Records
---
Amino acid sequence: MNTHEVAEAFTALCKAGEFEKAGLEFWAQTVRSVEAMDGPMASIEGIDAVIAKSEWWYANNEVHAIATKGPFVNGNQFSLVFDMDVTDKASGNRHAGEEVALYTVENGKIVEERFFYGT
Amino acid sequence: MNTHEVAEAFTALCKAGEFEKAGLEFWAQTVRSVEAMDGPMASIEGIDAVIAKSEWWYANNEVHAIATKGPFVNGNQFSLVFDMDVTDKASGNRHAGEEVALYTVENGKIVEERFFYGT
């Protein structure tokens, strides 16, 4: 699959709410996940670590709604815009807003995902 | 200025419709501009070439509206989402839709801009 095909298939799963399935299907073994934060979760590598982060996120956040827009493609990268409405279970803080995700594709797999937060 | 400060100032100019001023204020001398297309305009380098491309774009497109969302920041990069309603003067084709722009900042200047188009 080329980048456009990966982008379309990955996005279709996200739009169906199948975020974890999208990751499992398209993350490369070496995938790197980069959040816009400091600390040990800021940049992690390897599919097992990324799956664990995903599971941690879903365990610690209550998702009210996530709407996915895109894909937006350039070369071997594509971008999605997530409109999220989520409550952090620990603090009880509910946050609604958009974030941008940037995916880099090699050999039909996502080798990097990078998340950009609104200021 | 750090990346957050550049992102906020650049975005404020874009939201005010001052796109060319935003570029002139924040493009580095060596800025690289990457479009999601083939051909000689796909990747250009240097502030003079990027200014010329911008002038070409405004000369060849009639802008009905551009709404700017963001900024979305991660590390030394930030992203904007442009909701554009534009007519290509040559073809007469009017196109409305979103695109994503990704900016890389070094030393308070934008050293790369990269545009992602909806599919």
---
Amino acid sequence: MKKKYLMAPGPTPVSPEVLLEMAQPIIHHRSPQFSEILAEVREGLKYLFQTKNEVLTLVATGTGGMEGSVSNLLAKGDKGLVVRGGKFGERWAQIISAYGLTPVNIDVEWGYGPDPGVIRDHLKKDSAIKAVYVQAHETSTGVKFPIQEIGAVVKEFSGVALVVDAISALGVYDIKTDDWGLDVVVSGSQKAMGLPPGLAFVSLSELALEMMARSDLPKFYFDFKKERKNLLENKGAYTSAVSLVFGLRKVLRDIKAEGLEVMFARHALLAKAARAAATALGLAMFPKDSPSETLTVFLAPEGMDAGKIVKILRDKHGVTVAGGQDALKGKIFRISHMGYVDRFDLITALSALEMTLMELGYKFEVGAGVKAAEEVFIGGAQ
Amino acid sequence: MKKKYLMAPGPTPVSPEVLLEMAQPIIHHRSPQFSEILAEVREGLKYLFQTKNEVLTLVATGTGGMEGSVSNLLAKGDKGLVVRGGKFGERWAQIISAYGLTPVNIDVEWGYGPDPGVIRDHLKKDSAIKAVYVQAHETSTGVKFPIQEIGAVVKEFSGVALVVDAISALGVYDIKTDDWGLDVVVSGSQKAMGLPPGLAFVSLSELALEMMARSDLPKFYFDFKKERKNLLENKGAYTSAVSLVFGLRKVLRDIKAEGLEVMFARHALLAKAARAAATALGLAMFPKDSPSETLTVFLAPEGMDAGKIVKILRDKHGVTVAGGQDALKGKIFRISHMGYVDRFDLITALSALEMTLMELGYKFEVGAGVKAAEEVFIGGAQ
């Protein structure tokens, strides 16, 4: 017998209740019964996204939602301003380039967030920039970007849209789509929502709709105008992923019942416990700016390969965490605590980490990580 | 208590065994465990597609696979030859136009299949045509297109690819991808495979790979080169739809165990029974050329709205069938018998149809449809 614990930043664990919900018999995607489900889901997504606007549900991973946010908003000759502070910032630039447009890149050292003032400088001097593409949370570095402040800056420039990849942020901590002036917010099913991978979500502001009306870039499957028109009639443009939508309805009901504030507090407490454990174990954390509540990014001890830690955790203890990507490969490991993850999942991961560090000969006070986490939980409001 | 019977041409019913398979705990899409599954799925798809080439698995509906077959194969200035013999032929033309290219349309009256000679004529006179886009089966009309003959014609023209939408054909009847020279075959999970919607599949020949190397159309999420490169390492380019892939592995194992010939014979027998029932009920069938084994397309009796038949079947009897699309709305209804549908599902649909026709005042020998189907089943080889 070997139990498995999934603590990577997506896909995240799916609860047995949601798995069973998705195991219902398939119904037709154009039936009145399914339209009712989509109508309920539409409202649930508005609550989660904190918006009065429509939120599209696409059959794709989050990257599909990101691509559509380029191909539907920009037009030939436009530029997109990109904050490149990690692997997913690079993806924005790659997508913009793939459409033959010029990404204007603000390169931010991995581990830091961007200075909103630099975004202002670029927008002031280059009126060809029609949209700003940014992460809410850079999953590759564990850094939260100052989205609210960036929203305020972008609002100084009429007709410029702010597009936020909140794939690993939405549902973890507060993202006020409308209040902060976020024109497009992209998310995915396999993160804080605790669904399997397969659905992308995209909220669209009034400005986004205006830009969609003038966009002349090629698109078909990710045609947001067509999707939105269908959504207003509680339909998908193409065949909806029926079983995932069954799960989505359940998850959105649960989120509504729990309430966003409680959901955010739950993630914040887990993050606090993970950080306390890191400190107690004498492990440094990678983020230099605002570490996120999504995951905790640990630097491997000096001279130790983080890849080894990840491998022992997985193969010996059944705990799946993520290593570092690209330049961070071998240097960091990332323990996610978003979605269907509770305090004892984190205790499990910390306990497995302690045993792994012992095996690798790292010197520390055994039990100190778990103890620090317990103390946070006991002191916590939850 | 009201049982539901899904007899529409996608999504089709999913077996309880497959639903439970998909209800397994999620695993990480980059784990060795998941790579093993993808390796098995790769082989299973080659068997189903009757190809030695790789078959991509995309997180999308079939339309995403269709779009990628345009954006990855064609280049600026190319033309695509399209057989427009129904709603899905129109989709090929719309996708090609969306990319700023010219579709050369062969318009075929709905209900008929194309003449392969006309394809030859177009290819002879227009060397800008680099690919032929065609359906294996037009789901909107129930007509099978002569793909083998079209394959032979297209092979006369070096460097021209044949792209086949086999979304509602693959697994229903014989499609010999390699033997017939089909360069790209597109399919989807929610048809004969009996999975929920959410996965598209695309096989790629050597010629397709060559065309992908020269294609300069914009693409990112549906980047076949990137997907194929990852597939060769048993990975997806982005996050795989883990739960659907669990189901896919199960379905491909079942298909291998049953064998393609038995699977095709099963579908052929159901189609034969449905056609015999139609004749016994005095109902004409819509297709003028080769009716498919995927579904049976009935013309509503003179003066009767097919939409009413569909509605009564669904609301009173719990049997979901499809009506007509666009110009055929109100004129036809379509009973699908592909995928996880057995003889008693068809008997159920025919029985419900008889009761519906009685209610609508149609004069016929009650019981004759079910009787004719039973006679086919008893005489059948299965």
